[in-house]
Design goal:
Helix content is about 25%, strand content about 15%. It is of the alpha+beta class and about 80 residues long.
Length: about 80
């Protein structure tokens, strides 16, 4: 098991074995993801936006930008009590 020490400033040096395994280099960002209460995973946050492709399914019925704008305006008016 690899360990690290927390400094008084809340900083931790990630051990070299972990940096290599995660493909991290100086300046990279990391994310702390809570798996369950008291347990976290450290994940690199340097993935390209293309890595997100396919995470959300395509809508069954495509919606135009105009339709979206109309729906947003209608919802906004309803929330403000204008309709």
């Amino acid at each position: 098991m690899t360990t690290a020490t927390l400094t008084s400033k809340g900083q931790v040096t990630i051990p070299v074995q972990i940096r290599i395994a995660l493909g991290l280099k100086a300046g990279d960002r990391i994310e702390f993801v809570e798996l369950e209460r008291g347990k976290f995973a450290i994940m690199p946050s340097n993935q390209p936006v293309q890595a997100l492709k396919g995470m959300i399914r395509k809508p069954l019925n495509p919606v135009s930008i105009e339709d979206m704008s109309t729906a947003i305006a209608a919802r906004g008016a309803a929330v403000r009590g204008l309709v």
